[in-house]
Design the sequence.
């Protein structure tokens, strides 16, 4: 509804810039200083942040923007579910995150559904160009998700804002130098507003989930988003997706539903570690505070003592042991 004659690179840049601007406004009211947090970032986390910005903030949005330009909203929305598959494979292969049988079964159903969407039956089976572009975007967002999960030294709002500004300004620069097309003021403001909500607020919530339940499960739950996109494409744009798209929708929803059945519990050891992140006092955070100060979420450098115990848990920042 917004794109008109706007170049895909400019659209990608405005969406991310909108997220950066919107989150900086939030940080202003919270009286937080992004530069202060960035200056205290360790070299290891700084490299991961740079990698996340390049893969998920520059390459992936450009691929998605071109996919939107040349494909239908329903096709693009459904194929975005492949981000969860890419995230899970990378989390398992490279970052050794535990992936249970329910998660793997769900990914297979999502892959089958994606195959129905990306293959066209017109004059024989052929690949959709827009579909392949969206698949590329999903792969790079999978890399981004796994890198972002480990940058725990930055608050989720600051991290999302930094990614928004860096990716947005770079993509806008590319658009102005290498692409053609025009955009009206209302299109620019509209893209910034969509970016502030759908990229900014969404990314803050996504980063919080990454840190609490791990990359694979967060990406799977996040996969409900494209179904809202498909329904809105029918309601707002009048699109009529073919029958194969609705079959794909049922398969993908079944894959997501399987995740709710998973319970993961076993005896595991925590090594001593020291870091900074928002937390409340629980079985992993039992350090002392002045009376009453530990009941609410707070943020400071703290040390975790070694412990060995068993409880239901997810692969969050305190449970990253390999299986």
Sequence:
């Amino acid at each position: 509804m917004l794109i008109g004659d706007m170049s895909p690179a400019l659209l990608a840049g405005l969406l991310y810039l909108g997220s950066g601007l919107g989150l900086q406004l939030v940080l202003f009211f919270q009286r937080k200083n992004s530069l202060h947090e960035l200056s205290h970032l360790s070299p290891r986390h700084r490299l991961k942040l740079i990698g996340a910005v390049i893969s998920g903030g520059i390459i992936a949005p450009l691929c998605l923007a071109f996919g939107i330009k040349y494909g239908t909203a329903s096709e693009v929305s459904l194929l975005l579910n492949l981000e969860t598959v890419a995230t899970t494979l990378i989390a398992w292969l490279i970052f050794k995150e535990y992936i249970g049988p329910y998660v793997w079964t769900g990914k297979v159903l999502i892959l089958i559904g994606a195959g129905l969407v990306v293959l066209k039956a017109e004059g024989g089976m052929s690949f959709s160009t827009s579909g392949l572009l969206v698949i590329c975007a999903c792969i790079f967002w999978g890399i981004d998700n796994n890198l972002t999960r480990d940058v725990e030294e930055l608050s989720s709002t600051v991290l999302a804002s930094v990614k928004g500004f860096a990716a947005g300004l770079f993509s806008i620069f590319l658009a102005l130098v290498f692409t053609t097309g025009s955009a009206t003021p209302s299109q620019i403001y509209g893209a910034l507003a969509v970016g502030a909500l759908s990229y900014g607020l969404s990314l803050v919530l996504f980063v919080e989930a990454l840190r609490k339940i791990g990359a694979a499960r967060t990406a799977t739950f996040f996969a409900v988003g494209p179904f809202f996109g498909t329904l809105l494409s029918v309601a707002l744009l009048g699109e009529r997706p073919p029958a194969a798209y609705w079959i794909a929708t049922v398969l993908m929803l079944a894959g997501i539903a399987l995740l709710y059945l998973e319970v993961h519990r076993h005896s595991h050891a925590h090594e001593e570690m020291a870091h900074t992140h928002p937390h409340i006092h629980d079985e992993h955070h039992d350090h002392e505070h002045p009376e009453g100060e530990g009941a609410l979420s707070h943020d400071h450098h703290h040390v975790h003592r070694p412990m060995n115990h068993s409880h239901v848990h997810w692969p969050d920042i305190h449970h990253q042991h390999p299986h």
Summary: Residues 121-125 have pLDDT under 50 and may be disordered. Strands lie at 119-120, 126-127, 265-270, 273-279, 298-304, 307-312. DSSP finds twelve helices and six strands in the chain.
